[in-house]
Amino acid sequence: MRKKKKSLTEVSALGQYIPMSVHKARRVIDQIRGRSYKETLMILELMPYRACYPILKILYSAAANAKHNKGFEKEDLLVWKAEVNKGPTRKKLKPRARGRSYLLKKPTCHISVVLKDISYYEAYQTLYTREKYLPSNFRLKSSGAIWDKK
């Protein structure tokens, strides 16, 4: 398997073996994908589903990773990727009448959240929009690794 290349602007958190159905968790995850961190917190705190609490804990963990490990501000974070995958199914036996037993299947899921810092993109866009206001003989052209005058 090939390892994923670490991005400079992405931070992730993973919750494994969460005792919940994949469909119930995906119902909540689909609502928060692509939103800002603050907006996502408000949505998760007000939604009436049981899946919101573990997703909220994973989101808090990803934001703490961003603040501690990379020094990002929480206001600049965006929920870039959020996915729910199926985990192993726990099987239990429930005793029934006349010495019989029924199998109970308890589903689990793995939830991963990737946050992206958008302040770098905003800084790049301001630099790019400033380029058209520069004099005509001074244009930023890429000659490989460094930017130089034309």
Automatic annotation (TrEMBL):
Keyword Nucleotide-binding among UniProt keywords: no
Swiss-Prot/TrEMBL GO biological process terms: translation
Subunit and partners: Part of the 50S ribosomal subunit.
Keyword Plastid included in the entry's annotation: yes
Key words, A-Z: Chloroplast, Plastid, Ribonucleoprotein, Ribosomal protein, RNA-binding, rRNA-binding
Record-given protein name: Large ribosomal subunit protein uL22c
Record PROSITE patterns: RIBOSOMAL_L22
Primary location recorded for the protein, binned into one broad class: plastid
Protein function: This protein binds specifically to 23S rRNA. The globular domain of the protein is located near the polypeptide exit tunnel on the outside of the subunit, while an extended beta-hairpin is found that lines the wall of the exit tunnel in the center of the 70S ribosome.
SUPFAM superfamilies in UniProt: Ribosomal protein L22
HAMAP family: Ribosomal_uL22_B
Localization annotation: Plastid, Chloroplast
Family named by the database record: Belongs to the universal ribosomal protein uL22 family.
Entry's Gene Ontology cellular component terms: chloroplast; large ribosomal subunit
Species this chain originates from: Fagopyrum cymosum
Superkingdom assignment: Eukaryota
CDD domains named in the record: Ribosomal_L22 (cd00336)
One annotated GO molecular function: structural constituent of ribosome
